[in-house]
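Morning F.,

Quick status update on the modeling queue. The single chain you submitted on Monday has been processed. Sequence for confirmation:
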Amino acid sequence: MSDDWRGETVDRIRTLITQAAPEVVEETKWRKPSNPDGVPTFSLGGLICTLETYRDKVKVTFAKGASIDDPHHVFNASLDAGTRRAVDIRATDALDEDAFVELVRGAVALNLA
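Structure tokens below.
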């Protein structure tokens, strides 16, 4: 895990996810030689989202994001995908944390419906 702004961002996103859904289960999946740390995944009643770190951004991909109401337009990536939606966060971006928490809660509600 990165110890720069990306690591701080991942920690903050993890906190927001657990704030939104205290029963969430975090697992690391898809470990491989090119990504030995794997990909953190968050589930509750099914996959909620994945959390990936890239050189220039942190990406939170919601598995069923296209079905989640996003009135604050937090989703800013994968907007044309049929099922998923993502939030790309760069070093200078300010995340609307309350709106992000609502996305997580929406994903949980969809999984548990």
